[in-house]
Amino acid sequence: MQKNGPFALAFHTLIVLFVLAPLIVVCLVAFTPQNTLSLPWDGLSLRWFAAVFHHPDFVASFWNSARLALFSATISTMLAVPSALAITRYSFRGRDALNALFLSPLIIPHLVIGVAFLRLFSFIGATGSFGWLVAAHVMVIMPYALRLILAALNGMDLSAEMAARTLGAGEWTVFRRITFPMLLPGISGGWLLAFINSFDELTMSIFVTAPSTVTLPVRMYMYASESIDPMMAAVSTLMIALTGVTMIILDRLFGLDQLLVGKG
Amino acid sequence: MGFLQLEQVSKLYGEFAAVRDFDLEIERGEFISLLGPSGCGKTTTLQMIAGLVTPTNGRITLDGRDITREKPARRGLGVVFQSYALFPHMTVAQNVAFGLEMRKVAKAERDRQVAEILSLVKLTSLADRYPREMSGGQRQRVAIARALVIKPPVLLLDEPLSNLDAKLREEMQFELRRIQRVVGITTIMVTHDQAEALSISDRVVVMEGGKITQVDHPYSLYEHPKNNFISSFVGKSNFLAARAMNEATGVSLRVDNTDLKIPATGSYPGGELCLSVRPEKIRLTDPAGAMLHGPVSSRYFLGNHWLLSVSTPAGEISVAVANLGAPPPSEGDITGLTWNIEECRVLAAEQESALQS
Ligand SMILES: Nc1ncnc2c1ncn2[C@@H]1O[C@H](COP(=O)(O)OP(=O)(O)O)[C@@H](O)[C@H]1O
Ligand SMILES: [Mg+2]
């Protein structure tokens, strides 16, 4: 492998710093003992974190978001696996159209989807329903799961499945014992990516949540439009930490994936 | 009737025939190689036997039973894929046990059979490794063990040695033959390497463009190739343009103004012919009275032999000279060439240029 020169290294460091700077500032502000958004020059304090945990609306919204992301990520993964198999393994009429349809929520602005769902929900009387909220999220996050699973399927060596067949395995056994385990890194990655996308989806959720189903990003948005205090920084820090941990897991899984598919 | 029989088997992809009218009869216990250049339909043929590709036409029977449309799982043949196709998420022992599991063999018996086959392929100590932790040669032996453990009636190998480096390849070639002898299993191996096919098979099936061109024992194939393609693909050969002259006692050929008397082994159509002589059959002699002569244009030392190229009026001729201590003439020296008339083959001149390119 080629080593980076000192120039390239400095350049990359600057870019990384530029990207991370706002996040670092927010994380620092979260530890301030002051009442205003300021850097913690005069000592660190966890008071704003405590404030978050004592704010019942935020706690409720956090659980709403977590539950919503859990359900919608799981459902979209369960839909994405058979869709990806159909798209990669079979040729049928309308396959390309189906593929485009599945990926279209990536292209359509969430604002548009949000407005559309708002009209739909009030029309069918589904406003405030958690189930319909899940359905809306499934629609916008499934493309992420699908993309990762499609990539994993395309990179998979089909001869392992053929080998299993010659050894006496039926179609279902081949899927359960060979295809699924070999796809597992891709499937888990797809699930995590879907989870993150659902957890911090704001634009569409603003339109489709009701007071009882307000998600954390929507709650933060509502709170921030009225007042700005370091509690927002504390919530943000918590979200950054959560996303960071998920990303690390994602990377781990894909490192493993590389091992299995690439050098295997 | 053969143990495994293919009758007029063809596979069409649209208009394109990957395999055409494939007829072959294989005896129980035979080791057969399918030899041919890349893209000639070897893998397709093997996969039709395994049941992974459905033939467009024809019939395949195994021990008298028609298996043409049978599912691969029901045929129960052992297949070793070119990529080995090991299950990456299973250990060596789990990989090998998979086929037995599918046959609902009890755990204790399964373990016993896995241990037995792993010792046959000399992998006992690596039973708990994952495929990614093993070398190419070891993975290949896992693939063979996994295919053999189900005691298949036929073992199908798709270029099993092509992913190994040269030295390991030679070793594994004979290892493969040893395992095949011990188990006594009917084996079909696909390869594009003629040395491999000649050294370990009972019979070699040469394929070209989806069709069989010759089926023979390795020695006869090498000594009596049916056409230019085979004599250039199986080993190396010199091709000399020749003309047939009518004569009652045999066929006399005119090569570069010299008349060569060839014992009649068949009737040759009048006109353009082609004479095929293997480099190792040609001897260096004094230029005077030699069949052909000319200057040596290049000389390479290859350890056990020298490879010379001599520019003669009949074209560039390759000559392999065994290394017997004295170096052969060097570049620029004029040398004569001769060979026993019985040791060259007469072929029709057709498609020579197309095939040699
Ligand atoms: N699924 C397929 N669809 C279309 N053409 C194919 C397919 N499989 C193989 N072929 C073609 O059939 C020919 C023979 O292929 P193959 O049997 O794999 O050759 P070999 O193993 O001798 O290299 C090739 O020209 C290949 O492109
Ligand atoms: Mg092939």
From TrEMBL, chain A:
The record's annotation in SUPFAM superfamilies points to: MetI-like
Family annotation (InterPro entries)? MetI-like (IPR000515), MetI-like_sf (IPR035906)
Keyword flag ATP-binding? no
Q: Which GO terms describe its biological process?
A: transmembrane transport
Query: What's the protein's topology in the membrane?
Result: Multi-pass membrane protein
> Does the keyword section mention Transport?
yes
Q: Which keywords does the record carry? A: Cell inner membrane, Cell membrane, Membrane, Transmembrane, Transmembrane helix, Transport
Looking at the record's lineage, which domain of life comes first?
A: Bacteria
Q: Where is it found, in Gene Ontology cellular component terms? A: plasma membrane
Q: What is this protein called?
A: ABC transporter permease
UniProtKB/TrEMBL annotation, chain B:
Fetch the SUPFAM superfamilies from UniProt. MOP-like (SSF50331), P-loop containing nucleoside triphosphate hydrolases (SSF52540)
Record SMART domains = AAA (SM00382)
Check the UniProt entry and state the signal peptide residues, or none. Answer: none
**Any one GO CC term of the record:** ATP-binding cassette (ABC) transporter complex
Q: Where is the ABC transporter domain?
A: 4-234
The keyword Nucleotide-binding is assigned to this record: yes
The GO terms describing molecular function are:
ATP binding; ATP hydrolysis activity; transmembrane transporter activity
- What's the domain of life for this entry? Bacteria
* Keywords associated with the record: ATP-binding, Nucleotide-binding, Transport
What Pfam families does the record point to? ABC_tran (PF00005), TOBE_2 (PF08402)
PROSITE patterns under this entry?
A: ABC_TRANSPORTER_1, ABC_TRANSPORTER_2
Q: Which GO terms describe its biological process?
A: quaternary ammonium group transport
Membership in a protein family: Belongs to the ABC transporter superfamily.
The UniProt entry, under PANTHER family, shows: SPERMIDINE/PUTRESCINE IMPORT ATP-BINDING PROTEIN POTA, SPERMIDINE_PUTRESCINE IMPORT ATP-BINDING PROTEIN POTA
Protein name per the record: Fe3+/spermidine/putrescine ABC transporter ATP-binding protein
Can you name the source organism?
Phyllobacterium myrsinacearum
